[in-house]
Recover the amino acids of this structure.
């Protein structure tokens, strides 16, 4: 995932974030369990708490409506703005009478809630999901080995560009790092800032660069260990990542530090930058008649000896351990994991996403087929910096990476500080 | 000649200041009439290349603004009336009678105001759960009244304290009881302050987001501020729809301000001429 956005969070006040963090604390969950019942009616009905707004919401509305027709329970969809949802999710989960189901992220984010015993064990739902890939099962399993998550969809990251612009400039998408640097050089000589980026308000976008360089240089296992606190950020292997980044740094759009990702997309579409390492949600910020002109290439290979890994953030559902109606909750999860439900979901939400079920058909756009093939061909999948670590570790990356982009020569000091900040997070 | 020049300069400067003031508002209104494709192609800062009012329809229906506005008014109107009513009573007692410990009470109320609301978010959320009010508009009304009361009492206290004692004495001689003095003498005299505070508190409560999302979690009960936030997408936001939603959400507060404008200004001026 990648919608971590400290500046919007600031809007809600520091304390709100504090509330989120504290609300999940053991002290308060204990306090909450002794609290009286809330106002949400129980008995038969289940509530699906969702952060999906806009077009994605209609996909979920369809899912809920179809499920209700099955007669296995009555679900109600309750949508809350993403920025509120992010801070309030721990409170929802630890309240005395929590909603039953939640849209959120797999992997270490779900695992962190599972560690606090807030999530429902859905291992029996997974017994019917034999067709799912081991990678999907992995990100849905917590550290004790039980499944706690049901994936709905994922998407990919890549260098997006406009086909018409690449044709106009007479350039080809690169495959290797050397070709990539040559491409940057060519674009720069034509007076176009080669690499677009949008870090104002959305500094997490820089983490895509770190993630990809790290999994290309050091491989996905090292990346995961690093993000889990088992490796150090001041390790020479991490410094090697930034050495590669330094080679591309002169080609970054100098204006990219000022504007947020959505404005950076506008710049890319207007031909003011050459390409942009971003997730497929960039298509949501693109005018409909321009989407056809979008294409992407895979993050170039740096070391052919390293197994190719790709970033594929996975979205889906998990359930509260305190649900009053586990049967209906699991029935909805089972339905949501089916081919039929996921095809309907993907077709009804706009945007470029891939259904999680390997047999479910995605949109028939060539771009989508290409993305799907890229993920299928990857030896390993990672998700995104904060999804593979935690929302708490993300700000340490934002600080380190934006500082690096400003002052690449201070890399030793930056990495030492990153390690110090990360240790504070891991100590909790 | 000189004075004419001065007047001209004054008007020119004031026009500039007004434009500076109005600029962001005009920008939002213009933004709200642009299409998504226009903004995606030209950016939020560019001059408009399109005109549409469909953004208002989208904000109204997709954003669920009708229900949200009703919820907001259901919270704001009772909360304003209750907090001002209770605040006026408290201020009346504290300012016109020798209540033991009145200074401490007032300081305590003021101290409560200095407390950043963020640190009591968790207690408020858990307490509303304990009382069974969590996720209802009652909880929101209670919280708004509770947190506003200290400040309103403090302001009204300052105002009522300065009313001449002779009026109250005259009323007492005429045989008015405490209740009558409050409703027939003090309250009418406090009207400018009440009107000014009413307009202010209406804006504050109507525009509040923090308490709303702390005690409410269901879409159908959310007031208009979280509904506006809901117009933001997970990654990508349609700024023109958000701008349209903002314009719609601003209408009630602007209406209240226009309606109370006269009182508001006289309320401010009362302190000035003394």
């Amino acid at each position: 995932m990648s919608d971590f956005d400290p500046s919007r969070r600031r809007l809600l006040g520091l304390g709100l974030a504090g509330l989120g963090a504290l609300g999940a604390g053991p002290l308060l969950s204990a306090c909450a369990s002794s609290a009286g019942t809330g106002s949400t009616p129980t008995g038969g009905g289940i509530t699906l708490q969702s952060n999906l707004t806009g077009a994605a919401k209609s996909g979920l509305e369809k899912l809920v409506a179809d499920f209700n027709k099955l007669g296995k329970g009555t679900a109600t969809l309750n949508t809350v703005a993403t920025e509120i949802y992010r801070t309030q999710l721990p409170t929802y989960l630890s309240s005395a009478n929590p909603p039953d189901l939640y849209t959120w992220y797999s992997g270490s984010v779900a695992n962190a809630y599972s560690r606090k015993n807030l999530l429902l064990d859905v291992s029996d739902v997974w017994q019917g999901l034999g067709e799912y890939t081991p990678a999907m099962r992995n990100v849905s399993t917590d550290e004790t080995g039980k499944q706690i998550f049901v994936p709905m969809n994922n998407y990919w990251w890549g260098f997006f560009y406009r086909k018409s612009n690449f044709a106009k400039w007479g350039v080809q998408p690169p495959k290797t790092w050397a070709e990539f640097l040559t491409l940057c050089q060519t674009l720069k000589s034509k007076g176009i800032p080669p690499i677009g980026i949008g870090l104002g308000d959305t500094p997490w976008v820089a983490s895509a660069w770190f993630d990809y360089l790290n999994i290309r240089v050091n491989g996905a296992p090292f990346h995961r260990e690093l993000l889990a606190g088992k490796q150090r950020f001041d390790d020479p292997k991490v410094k090697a990542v930034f050495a590669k980044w330094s080679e591309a740094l002169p080609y970054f759009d100098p204006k990219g530090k000022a504007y947020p990702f959505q404005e950076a997309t506008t710049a890319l579409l207007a031909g003011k930058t050459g390409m942009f390492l971003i997730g497929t949600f960039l298509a949501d910020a693109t005018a409909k008649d321009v989407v056809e002109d979008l294409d992407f290439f895979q993050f170039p290979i740096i070391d052919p000896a390293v197994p190719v890994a790709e970033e594929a953030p996975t979205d889906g559902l998990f359930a509260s351990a305190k649900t009053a109606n586990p049967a209906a909750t699991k029935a909805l999860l089972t339905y949501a994991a089916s081919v039929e439900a996921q095809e309907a979901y993907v077709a009804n939400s706009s945007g470029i996403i891939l259904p999680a079920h390997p047999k479910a058909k995605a949109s028939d756009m060539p771009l989508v087929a290409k993305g799907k093939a890229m993920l299928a061909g990857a030896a390993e999948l990672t998700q995104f910096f904060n999804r593979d670590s935690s929302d708490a570790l993300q700000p340490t990356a934002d600080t380190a990476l934006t500082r690096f982009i400003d002052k690449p020569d201070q890399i030793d000091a930056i990495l030492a500080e990153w390690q110090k900040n990360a240790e504070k997070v891991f100590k909790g | 000649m000189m004075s004419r020049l001065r007047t001209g300069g004054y008007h020119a400067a004031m026009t500039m200041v007004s434009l500076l003031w109005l600029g962001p508002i005009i920008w939002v209104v213009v933004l709200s009439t642009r299409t998504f494709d226009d903004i995606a192609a030209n950016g939020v800062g560019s001059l408009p290349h399109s005109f549409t009012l469909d953004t208002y329809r989208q904000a109204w229906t997709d954003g669920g603004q009708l229900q949200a506005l009703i919820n907001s008014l259901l919270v704001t109107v009772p909360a304003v009336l209750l907090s001002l009513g209770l605040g006026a009573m408290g201020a009346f007692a504290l300012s016109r009678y020798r209540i033991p410990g009145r200074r401490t009470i007032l300081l305590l109320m003021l101290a409560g105001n200095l407390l950043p609301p963020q640190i009591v978010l968790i207690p408020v959320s858990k307490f509303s759960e304990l009382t069974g009010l969590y996720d209802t508009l009652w909880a929101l009304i209670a919280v708004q009244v509770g947190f506003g009361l200290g400040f309103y009492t403090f302001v009204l206290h300052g105002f009522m304290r300065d009313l001449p004692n002779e009026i109250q004495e005259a009323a007492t001689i005429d045989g008015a009881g405490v209740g009558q003095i409050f409703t027939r003498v003090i309250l009418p005299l406090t009207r400018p302050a009440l009107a000014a505070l009413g307009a202010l508190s209406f804006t504050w409560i109507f525009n509040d987001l923090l308490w709303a999302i702390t005690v409410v979690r269901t879409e159908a009960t959310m007031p208009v501020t979280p509904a506006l936030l809901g117009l933001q997408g997970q990654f990508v936001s349609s700024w023109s729809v958000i701008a349209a939603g903002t314009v719609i959400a601003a209408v009630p507060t602007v209406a209240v301000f226009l309606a109370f404008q006269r009182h508001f200004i006289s309320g401010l001026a009362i302190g000035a001429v003394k």
Q: What stands out?
A: The longest helix of chain B spans residues 239-273.
